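User: Good morning. I'm curious how adenosine-5'-diphosphate would be positioned relative to this chain. Could you predict the structure with it bound?
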Amino acid sequence: MSRCLPTTAEGQLKIDVLTAWVETEWLPAHPEGNLQTVLDTPAIINHIALNKLPKDFQFKGDYTYTGLREIECPVVTRISQFTWQAERRYQTGAFLYRFDPVEAGEPVEVLVLGTYNGEESYQLTVVSVVPGDFIPAWVHFANECARLENTIEPESKVIVVGGRTAAFTPTTKWDEIILPEKLKADILEDVSSFFSKGIQVYTRLNLKPFRKLLLAGVPGTGKTMLCSALASWAIEQGLLVIYISSSQKWRDDEPAATFSKIQHALDLAANSAYPTLILLEEMDAYLHADQKAQVLNVLDGSEAALNPKGTLMICTTNYPEAIDERILKRPGRLDRIFIIPETKLAVDAEKMLRQYLGDMWQESHSRLVPKLVGYPGAFIREVAIHALTQVAYANAESLEYSVLEDSYKSLKEQLDARDDFLTQRIGIGLQPIALHTNGN
Ligand SMILES: Nc1ncnc2c1ncn2[C@@H]1O[C@H](COP(=O)(O)OP(=O)(O)O)[C@@H](O)[C@H]1O
Ligand SMILES: [Mg+2]
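Assistant: Good morning! Here's the predicted structure, ligand included:
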């Protein structure tokens, strides 16, 4: 006998023990109903899944599940396993699961035997004894338990896949993001109309309701802010929001940005059957040679599990040149690309400077504004913060224009020195490539 098969002390397979008991004890005492012995999923003895079943859920043949009761059975162990939040997960033992017909008729009972496999294993063996006519309803019930075992529901936080924390609350407000108003409005319009109307359109056209947007731009232009503000918006709408993080490795021998995290997030979305927003930051990091093909397939939708309620994935990148043409130019892989620019208008640069200087802002500071145009928001924020720290160190009451200008100069010098260094090192500089946008 193979070593990995679960056996009892007498060397018997656990499943044989359960089945032998069914055949010698249970079936002779229950000759009616053409009973079938079925090997089942542990999900049916998972109380987290069972508790998620809606009370009025109708299984095939119009039956609802109305609860279980424990019975005596000498061949199963009775053990409960709890989550760290003290929720009962698996409960082993022998149980009768009861199903009531929605219309008049007799209830149906199904015997479920669940037990741990053997001494060395936490594997569960679950065997059910089901009336022949009830098999379609029972399979439906087991499938629903298996789905609910892994499902998550919208909550007031963003659910994190692959990160150090399980969830976080996004804090960015839409108004704090300073970008051309039309661009902001277009992004929000694209996202909101997918959830309000787009999903029905995709479904009517027999397409997977899976839309993918890319926010591309140099570092520090507000892409992460946009993701955070869209996450807040989505939570308010009752959507499920999942953030794919590359902060923690799932396996030591793999990079932290892996295809399997994207796949897992899409599976969660599909299992949840809620409209879902998925955020994938720094998408370029997931496109390393060995996994690129898989990521491409996911973007095509060919390898993504289907979420009938619709999934919108927003990706960001600082390095669109790292995303090759197979993604950028092939229709359907990315549905729309938004370029998130450095500050273009003096009014925006001034708004940004005012926002980050707060109470310290004075009209005289507006002289610096023309110099700030063309820089990313993160740079303008750094200039403001650097100036404010100088005020604090000098115990000054207000921010002199000269201090602000010095902050600008010293940060610009640092930036220029870094750019020169990179240009020399790379030889060709970091040329942003021309992106082909569609619909924008
Ligand atoms: N468009 C913007 N409007 C307001 N603040 C910005 C903007 N862009 C960047 N910032 C400031 O710079 C910080 C870094 O920006 P971030 O969104 O992380 O940039 P990205 O993700 O594009 O690299 C933000 O937290 C914010 O303080
Ligand atoms: Mg970012």
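The chain has a mean pLDDT of 88. The first strand starts at residue 35 and ends at 40.
Let me know if you'd like a different ligand tried.
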